[in-house]
Amino acid sequence: MNIKKIDHVTINIKNYEETIKFYGGLLGLKQLDSVTMDDHILHYFLLPDGSRLELTEYFFDTTEIPVEATNKGCARHLAFEVDDITTLAKRLEDAGYTFHVPVSYVKKLDFTGGLTKDPNDFEIEFLQYGCQIGG
Question: pLDDT digits over 69-79, tens only?
Answer without folding.
Answer: 787 777 788 99
